[in-house]
Amino acid sequence: MSARALLTCLLGALLLSGCVSYRLGITFNWLGGGTVEQILAVDRNLVEAGGEQLDTLVAGLERRTAELGGTSERTVERLRLRIPFEDGADLESKLNRFLGRPLETAARPTAQAVPAVLSGTAPLPAVLAKDPPALSTPGPLRLVQRDRWLWSEYDVSADLDLRSPFGTVRVGNWVSGLIQLEFALTTPLPAFRSNSDEQQGQTLLWRIRTGEINHLEASFIVPNLLLIGLITLAALALAAFAWQRRKLFSAR
Questions:
Q1: Which residues lie closer than 8 Å to 172 by C-beta, 6 or more apart?
Q2: Residue 95: helix, strand or coil by DSSP?
Q3: Which keywords fit this entry according to its UniProt record (predicted)?
Q4: pTM, whole model, 2 decimals?
């Protein structure tokens, strides 16, 4: 079955049965590292329609996740991928490598063998992705990190072009009801600027819309806990030394 035939089959399953849900979440910890988590949930009828081709796509995702030091959990209708990152630069590199290059299969490593699960400019599930860009195409995520004395400032932005996920096939309004795409960003402290659709404490949530370009941006800070801890310890040590001297002089 060709990639185009597969897309047609999966599209028919979408019309008959249910929806595809994809959530990309990035969580920063207090040390500036964190985890990228991707959850792809597909209706059972859609899974059956995909057959071996869909299994190949999922296996490619799992392999790519492992190459980036991540782990995967798979059930019949759900795939969860986790990729750790050490800092902002590591996040940008790993996520853009994951999103920006086509799946590689041992059986048929040609560019036309399978569609990209997530193209460089359109983070869609495999069943709705267009042909991947060249490897030299920059990824969709951009991250600028500015290291201050007691904290680091982060500016995160992305442009996701979902105007035509099927390549030459124009997507109608009915797709929005069958596809649920979300991007979530969780930070140690609440973001001080974003264009997210919703903010719940430290988590920003964007609902990605098909048929248009989605621009995402957010700014937040991560405290330098190591330096803050050293300063605190030094201050406590000085306070203890001053108290001991004062006690010694009082005794005289």
A1: none
A2: helix
A3: Membrane, Transmembrane, Transmembrane helix
A4: 0.71
